[in-house]
Specification:
Helix 1 (2-44) packs across helix 2 (60-82). By secondary structure, the chain is mostly helical. It has helices at 2-44, 60-82.
Length: 87
Amino acid sequence: MMEEILAILLAVAIAATVYYFMKKTLTLVINAVAGLATLLLLNYFDVLAWFGAPDIQVNLVTILICALGGLPGALILVLLHLAGIAF
């Protein structure tokens, strides 16, 4: 009887842990997509050319910044790029 209760509690704990990590992963993916979509749209419409700056390269560093920061991360990348600090 005790073994069944422990097995059920363990299954609930594992399910809760998996749910927590999947929820965080989904948020990270949504942030990454939103930030990268913003950068790609800025590059596609040559918005930065209006300010005399070249397009922002999409590489591993910019993907990580957009994944962790989302739209504010993309905005920070644009501001740093306009200030002359490139990644």
